[in-house]
Amino acid sequence: MAAPNNTLLWLLLGICLIFISFGGFAILLLLYSLAFISGALLIVYNFGKQAIDIDVAETSLVVGQFGHGGIEKVKESMEPTTKIKNFDKRMTGASVIDDVLKEVLEYVVKDYIKTWYRQISDHDSFLVDIWQCAQKVIITFSNRSKEIDWMPYFTQRLVDDFASHIRLYRRAAEKTTVSKIEDNAGALESAFFDMEVEMENNMCRDLVCLDPEAERQYLQDLSEVLLYLLLPKEDFHNKPFRYIVREVLVNGIFLPTIDLLSDPDYINQYMAWMCYETSFTRETFLTVIRSSDSMEELEAVRDMVDSDIAKWRSKDTGGSDDTAIKQNLNSLMFLRDTCDMRIRRLKSGIGSHEQLIEGPDNLRYNSLYVLTLDEIFNNNVALQAFIEYMNNRGGQQYLFFYLNVEGFRAAAEQQISEMQKLTLSSVTAAEPDLESLRRAAKIIFDQYLSEKASSRLKIEPQYIKYTVAKMKNKMLSEDIFDIVQARVYQILHCEYYEDFLQSPAYMKLLGELGLLHNKGEDGDNLSMEDDGSAPTGSECSLGSAEDLLDTQFEDMGSDTVSIGSGSSATSAGSPSGDSYIHAQITHSGVIKEPETGKSYAVFAITVHKKDPYSDEEDVWDVYRRYSDFHDLHMILTEKFPEISIPVLPSKTVLKNMSQNFLEKRRKDLDKYLKVLMKPELLQNISGLEELMNQFLHTGIWEKHKSEFSRKMDTIVHPLKSASKSMGNVVKSVPDGVSRIGDGLGKVFTQKSMDQNKTRETMNQLKVGAGLDPEAGENIPLRIMLLMMDEVFDLRHKNQWLRRRIVAILRQLIKATFGDKINRKIVEHVDFMTSAEQMAEYMMAFRNSFWPNGVLAEPRVTRDESTKMRTRVLCKAKMLGSVPDEVRTLMGTDAVRKGVARVFQMFQHKTLNKRILYVVLEGVLVTLFPDNKFQTIFRTLHSRSTRVEKVDGNKQTPSNHESQLRKRQSKR
């Protein structure tokens, strides 16, 4: 308050001094100062007003000359929000796809663009430009896709690329196994890419798969090319925009997607999801546990089993469920013991089957099945093993001669019978047929019996003379080689067959046929019929302990392992209400036909049925063979695909008539029948009760087989009796015996060095390069051959087995679909690439990334134990998905090794990346056939140091040759 008072005092003091000094003149001076200031302000105001009026006049003149819309447009552009005008939002031309695409684009804009753009600006013009650019890209891509025929890619190139990938992995694994390097994974990948240079003709994808920076650079180059083809010109020439889009594609889409799809754990989950639930059985699960070479897998399963044992023991308090709880505990403890046994074997350094192939030990071969020599000839897998054994012994020419004569006899019988029919019906001359037979006989004679034969047999001269005399006979017969063949059979039996039974190869063969450690009381009495089938290897190895696995574990989620038989503990079809039907397989037996002498197993089913409003119960017995149950299973699969059909006990080639096996088969079939006869299932599934009534009544079942079941009969029978005799091979040839010299006669000759070199050369090329032209035209046969060749390694087996498999596959395809299968495949590919299916794919993508319209949370990292259990589950399901017919044809051990090969191939992330890039490149080459993508990829993949080494090795000899030429020219 002091400062204002002082100022006021000083102001009053100043005024007093002015009036004292100037008197009345001071008032005039004050008025003069006010008038001066007011006048100056008035003059400034007048000049400013005049200048404003001049500027307004000039501005009005300019606006009048150039229009009045500029300011309004600037004003509109400066508004905080703009109204987005409606424009054409059609993209693919299919409304079902456009609707889903529109939602996906809206979600992308909402979650990936607006989140950062709204922090910068509220204008929507940028969002509209982004939408229109994406729309133009989709339109260009969809129009390009509509012009492409995807059939050749899906049925030829894709299958060929995948089969070639398996071939590279198989060769690399073989090389790594031989070298025994400690870093197995790194050595395998290195060998894989070294061999890729040879297969792909100086092109290698190792940098893309192994070097992250090279992978990013590759994807950037590829994105540049795709943006050039898909983006509008004005957007592509906008460098900042193009670089931003490229980086978003590479770092936000390509790299994360490829990293996810190449993750072995993700692939294991996906393969386990693709396999049917019924493919997981206790037999396949125990087979995987007993053959696992991973300590981590076994320990993960064992930890889960220990946890489950603790849970079940906490419930073991007696009561009505005490029996079921004890059964579950017994099953779990048996599984834990199996894991512990396998872990101990791995720690001791013993592999999965090393104990089976050690040196001969006569004690080890006691109490084994004894296959007769005829049974070996009549089975594909057994004959293949015997051929390999004979090759090692150097006596393969005897076996090849015997099989050639079998084929000649069957063809000769066919040709002579046809000749006789023609002679009876007309006067047509039959001499050409006899001459063709004579030429075929001469081929066999020159190859094995003549003095200049390359594979001459050591046969007594009198037998050869007798054969020459019969060949000179005018009326040629089919038995001209019988006496020599009988002598060869004696040699095979005495000198080779008995030693074969004592060899490790025979024990391995029994394992493949599922006959190891399972000789019953009548184990020596084996035959090749359909019904009494021996159990598989995994079933046989369980022994008496397998009954402990009849109950199921608790449901542990998708990532845990469970064991179950799919059967119910209750008596199915139990009486309910006034009416009921109850069936039980009471006993089994063996019946021998007096006419043919063949024996087969039958199962007696006791049926109890009570009709409504009836006081009496009807009881009768019906007898069914295993083939009847198989037919029923096929009909159920055909008519009722919506229900979960229980697993039918598997069939194998050789039947076992022992009482132990028949009792086990009776129990398995009884469980199968009880599941089908559950009252709730019969009531809820329309038509099932009628079908079961037909099956359980005597005399009417054969009349109700479906067409599909009959077709399956034609498939299963050739698989069982594919090699009954070599005559079946010849009979399937249209030209009859005229092709023996080019067919069987060459199949069983000794392999020359040129043939081995040719096979090795073909093994280094892509798989499709080695296919026959005839097989290449048949789409399903080509696909099956490509897969089976590499998965089961058929090319390294005897060519007889491979040709036999081709013949069976042709018969299987013809019996199943006839000539319509190619059209079915074309229709299926068209359906998978149709607009409706594309919309389904887009919907699945939308629901995965935006469930209920909300961006999904990041994937939860799975612990290692869960990953290991998923590996076991995936292997068990893959093994269980192989049909029994394939096991019969290829052998149990070959199937197990093939499945293990495919599974192990997917456990290498770098190799998974390689096949993904191969698929991506194949799609782009197919999608843009006129843009030289193949050349682009070859240029990008030629940066590898492996390719440079190969080119340097090629250039070194050429430089050396040029230097020699220069020296010679100087001389």
Automatic annotation (TrEMBL):
**Superkingdom of the source?**
Eukaryota
Q: What Gene Ontology molecular-function terms does this entry list?
A: phosphatidylinositol binding
Keywords linked to the UniProt accession: Membrane, Transmembrane, Transmembrane helix
**SMART domains registered for this protein in UniProt:** PX (SM00312), PXA (SM00313), RGS (SM00315)
One Pfam family linked to the record: PX
Ranges for the PXA domain? 94-279
Q: Where are the membrane-spanning stretches?
A: 12-45
Instruction: Show where the RGS domain sits.
Output: 372-510
- Spans annotated as Disordered: 522-541, 946-971
Indicate, by first and last residue, each region the UniProt record lists as having compositional bias (Acidic residues): 523-532
Q: Which residues form the PX domain?
A: 581-702
Oxidoreductase in keyword set: no
Which InterPro entries does this entry report, sorted A to Z?
A: Phox_assoc, PX_dom, PX_dom_sf, RGS, RGS_sf, RGS_subdomain_2, Sorting_nexin_C
GO cellular component terms, A-Z: early endosome
What PANTHER family does this protein's entry cite?
SORTING NEXIN, SORTING NEXIN-13
The record's similarity note reads: Belongs to the sorting nexin family.
**What name does UniProt use for this protein?**
Sorting nexin-13
From which source organism is this entry? Lymnaea stagnalis
